Amino acid sequence: MTISVEISASVALKISKVGEDTYPATEAGPLFGLDVASEPAEDKRHTSIKVSHAFQFPPSYANDEIFSFRASNVKYQNDLLAKLRDTKVGVKHLGWFLTTNGGRFVSQSLIEAIISQQNQNLTENRDSTPVVVLVFDTLKSMDGLLSLRAFKLSESFVRAWKSDERFVSKNLYENRLTYRNIFEEVPLKIRNSHLSNLKLQELSPGFEEDSCLELTGATLASMNLTVDNLAETVDVFNHTLGNLNYYQRNLSRELVKINQWKQQIRQQNEEKLKKDPNAKLTETENDWHRHFRLPIQPSKYDNLVTSGLINSYCNSLETDGSIEQVKIAGIEECN
């Protein structure tokens, strides 16, 4: 099933206003609206998610990272939905919006909130529509360009989450899950009402004659913040990687012991059979598990999410770097 997201202009403006008012802090809030399946004559497997309302979570003074789905936010979200339905507004909860700085939005709390909401929708309403997340980058939007993107959890990640052995090497390989495809970007469209479009056509934009390309805009500040966040996340990645390396070292030591034990048992059994071909063997090589226990393979969930966040930072730097490179090339041509 393919999906697309359509939001009203008022929702886009509200999210950008929240990001501007709370910068440099990050905020989040629930999204409400409807999901509309396409007509049978068009595409049976396409769903358009139409967001009509967005609300900011109440301010919190707790030290939360990127996104928090605490009990108070859940209650606030449910109360909003009940009030909207009391006013005869036929909407449902579709997901959340996040305001970020430097492309930072991937987190375990966000992933687990999405999984929980999708399971709840499927259990209570038999609704399999994916939960979406709108990500607004405040720093990138300070140059006058709206940086608003829509994401959903990929099918590969959902399958890996539902597996019996979550996020071990075999599980990741079977579901073709990597840090690059934890989230999947969804096409996003901003919709204006007809009256708004008519008013915009009447307005004539005015430009100053001396307007020129801004070379010291928010892009540089965004890159500096992204680099700082990237360095911090790499430290976290190295810590989780150390845990995985510790498991690999323990596994290697145990495998060496097991192979030595198997070789010893094989030699003993060969000597016993030479003396008496009808002798009964008390142990075989397959009985190694009675004497040894392999270390439990750790989950790669933390490592996967951290790698996804690093990938998000790198993509953000690549985009911002290309913008600055174009500006530098323009200056060189002018000189």
UniProtKB/TrEMBL annotation:
* Any one GO cellular component localisation term in the record: eukaryotic translation initiation factor 3 complex
Lineage runs:
Eukaryota, Fungi, Dikarya, Ascomycota, Saccharomycotina
Q: What species is this protein from?
A: Pichia angusta
Pfam families the UniProt entry points to: eIF3h_C
InterPro entries with a match to the protein in the record: eIF3h, eIF3h_C, JAMM_MPN+_peptidase_M67A
Claim: Protein biosynthesis is one of the keywords in the record: yes
Q: Which UniProt keywords apply?
A: Cytoplasm, Initiation factor, Protein biosynthesis
Residues forming the eIF3h C-terminal domain are: 143-319
Q: What is this protein called?
A: eIF3h C-terminal domain-containing protein
Q: Name one GO molecular function term.
A: translation initiation factor activity
